[in-house]
Specification:
With 294 residues, this protein is an all-alpha fold. The protein is 68% helix and 0% strand. It has 17 helices and no strands. The chain is globular. The mean pLDDT is 87.
């Protein structure tokens, strides 16, 4: 037992050293970084912000696409960044750009182990579903719920891009030994993708409610700093699996915690099935939007 514990510790230490090197890379695109800095200032005007964001047409398209998502339910179609700023507000826009920044920083090419389009679809649908659920629950910060949902599996993307041989080893262990992805992650890295996502988001000074929920989205929400947001992420994640829309292979063993069931007033599995079914049409509407995010 002590030998196993030592091996796990050594693997974890090696992984953390790799992650420390990732931290010094210029990973956030310049326009996104400039936009985030402007959004941090209370004196920034919409015109100044529009001018900076307009330098990156891909970013413009992504922001407008997300703003027009059915999950936002805006009465008028957003066609310009200036209008997006007006209807979304600075805080909401900052959440969107923050999520897109991290996703862009760790985006990699599709290969036999990870389909990038499917991964972005899963991240996006989970994020927008979190926003919708948080509004329905009366959660005070639906923007924070969105960014947490969007980034909940960012650790997977980090492993794929910066520790690719380890990523391949994890996938092969799952396939050959028929073990869970979590067990395979621990065997190869000494850490899970949840731990890795939290490690980097902490370094980038994301709020604790976000980093802790990313770290524990496969655990009981009762262990989270903010159990409500953790439950929202877990529910959205499970809904992608149940509806098989935007679902992700690494989540195939995910189950709803009793606390999450209670938060959403669900008592039995059949209640969850009915709850998820109510979102099916809305989920399919999201699929067409995601092509702009890749």
């Amino acid at each position: 037992m002590e030998t196993q514990s030592l091996e796990l510790s050594q693997k974890r230490e090696k992984t953390q050293k790799t992650l420390a090197n990732v931290m010094v890379l210029p990973v956030i695109p310049k326009v996104m970084l400039e936009s985030l800095k402007l959004l941090d200032s209370q004196f920034t005007t919409a015109k100044e912000l529009d001018k900076v964001i307009a330098k990156d047409q891909a970013l413009v398209t992504k922001i407008i696409t997300i703003a027009n998502s059915p999950f936002y339910g805006l009465q008028r179609k957003v066609t310009t960044i200036e209008y997006a700023i007006m209807v979304l507000g600075y805080r909401e826009l900052r959440d969107i750009i923050s999520a897109l920044s991290v996703a862009e920083a760790f985006k990699n090419k599709t290969d036999r182990y990870l389909n990038q389009k499917e991964f972005i679809l899963h991240s996006y649908i989970t994020g927008t579903t979190c926003k919708k659920l948080s509004n329905e629950l009366g959660f005070h910060n639906s923007g924070e719920a969105f960014i947490t949902g969007f980034l909940h599996d960012v650790g997977v993307s980090i492993i794929h891009r910066y520790m690719h041989s380890d990523f391949a080893a994890i996938c092969e262990l799952v396939e050959n030994k028929k073990i869970s992805f979590r067990d395979a992650e621990l065997e190869v890295l000494g850490m899970t993708h949840e731990n890795i996502g939290q490690f980097l988001l902490d370094k980038w000074n994301f709020p604790v409610d976000i980093t802790d929920s990313v770290a524990k989205h496969h655990s009981s929400p009762t262990s989270c700093h903010n159990p409500t947001i953790c439950s929202i992420v877990q529910m959205a994640d499970c809904m992608t699996q149940k509806l098989k829309i935007g679902h992700f292979t690494w989540d195939r063993d995910l189950t709803l915690d009793p606390y999450t069931m209670k938060i959403f007033n669900l008592e039995r599995d059949i209640d969850f099935e009915k709850f998820a079914a109510g979102y099916k049409d809305l989920f399919w509407e999201q699929v067409e939007f995601v092509r702009f995010l890749n």
